């Protein structure tokens, strides 16, 4: 599949989910996951200071809402997304001018488009739909943080996902359908802990690799959350895998 087709398929798939997306994740389990992610993001931004946050695959705006609720930083926010439908849903929830939304695939955003970004984030597997070699994606992100240097939080689909193993084994490229969607799929790249550590090391980054917990996508029962939360810093077999640096 060439790059043009990859991007067209992303746009088509995520546009098709855009009006239902927030409802799909309106559950007690998702709310707990959001709290886990917010708790990891908040320490990446110094309290009370002005920060530029860049979100890749920002979707309908969950990441911005989490930061607005859980940090005291003065956030200037830019969200990038390939799907006009997802961005329209995001824009409907916020005042004009409150956030900057860019409709483009991350792959095509120029290396010199941003500078001095304080935090680059891609939440809930968004980084898996960017078709760049991992080291090239990190190079681009680190370039957007220069010269000052910032933090990153990137979420991917895990190559060792037990949930996806019956259909896809440990293949790096799969066709992925978000929860409760049938028939349609988007191409996605999966990574293992070793893949993420190798790419981070190539850029001299000391990265922490975590997950959303072993039960995500498998046994999402609120009663099981405490166990899931306890094990969320481990990654073997989990559905997602997150790099924090
Ligand atoms: C799983 S959703 C996550 C959305 C949001 N981060 C959240 O947590 O609710 C993935 C998002 O990535 C976007 N996306 C997919 N491929 C992309 C690409 N190559 N460049 C930019 N955005 C992309 C989709 O349109 C979608 O909004």
* Whole-number mean pLDDT: 95
The biggest sheet, with number of strands, parallel, antiparallel or mixed sense and barrel status, is: 9 strands, mixed
Q: How does the helix and strand content classify structurally?
A: alpha/beta
Compressed to H and E, one letter per element, the order equals HHHEHEHEEHEHEEHEHE
Strand content: 15-25%
Helix content: 25-40%
Shape: globular
Rounded to an integer in angstroms, the radius of gyration calculated over CA atoms is: 17 Å
CATH architecture: 3-Layer(aba) Sandwich
Write a structural description:
The protein contains 9 helices and 9 strands. Strands 1, 2, 3, 4, 5, 6, 7, 8 and 9 form a 9-stranded mixed beta sheet that branches. The chain has a single domain, classed as Rossmann fold. The two termini are 31 Å apart. Helix 4 links the parallel strand 1 and strand 2 (74-81). The protein is α/β, with parallel strands linked by helices. It is 34% helix and 20% strand. The chain binds S-adenosylmethionine (SAM). S-adenosylmethionine binds at residues 10, 14, 57-59, 62-63, 80-83, 86, 105-107, 123-126, 129-130. Residues 10, 14, 57-59, 62-63, 80-83, 86, 105-107, 123-126, 129-130 line the site of S-adenosylmethionine.
Q: What's the SSE blueprint?
A:
Blueprint: H1 3-17, H2 21-24, H3 28-41, E1 50-56, H4 62-70, E2 74-81, H5 84-92, E3 100-103, E4 119-122, H6 134-145, E5 151-158, H7 165-168, E6 173-176, E7 186-191, H8 193-202, E8 208-210, H9 225-230, E9 240-244
Parallel strand pairs: 1-2, 1-4, 2-3, 4-5, 5-7
Antiparallel strand pairs: 5-9, 6-7, 8-9
């Amino acid at each position: 599949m060439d790059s043009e087709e990859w991007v067209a398929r992303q746009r088509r798939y995520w546009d098709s989910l855009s009006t239902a997306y927030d409802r799909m994740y309106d559950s007690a389990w998702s709310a707990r996951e959001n709290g886990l992610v917010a708790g990891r993001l908040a320490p990446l931004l110094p309290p009370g200071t002005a920060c530029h946050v860049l979100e890749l695959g920002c979707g309908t705006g969950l990441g911005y809402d989490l930061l607005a609720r859980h940090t005291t930083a003065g956030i200037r926010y830019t969200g990038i997304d390939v799907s006009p439908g997802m961005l329209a849903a995001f824009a409907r929830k916020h005042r004009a001018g409150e956030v900057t939304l860019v409709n483009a695939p991350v792959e095509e955003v120029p290396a010199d488009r941003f500078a001095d970004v304080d935090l680059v984030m891609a939440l809930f597997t968004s980084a898996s739909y960017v078709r760049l070699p991992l080291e090239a994606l990190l190079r681009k992100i680190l370039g957007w943080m220069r010269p000052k240097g910032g933090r990153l939080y990137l979420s991917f689909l895990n190559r060792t996902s037990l949930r996806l193993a019956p259909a896809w084994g440990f293949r790096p490229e799969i066709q992925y359908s978000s929860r409760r969607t049938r028939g349609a799929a988007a191409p996605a790249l999966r990574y293992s802990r070793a893949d993420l550590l190798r790419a981070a090391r190539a850029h001299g980054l000391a990265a922490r690799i975590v997950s959303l917990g072993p039960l995500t996508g498998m046994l999402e029962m609120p009663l099981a959350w405490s166990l899931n939360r306890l094990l969320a810093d481990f990654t073997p077999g989990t559905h997602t895998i997150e790099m924090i640096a």
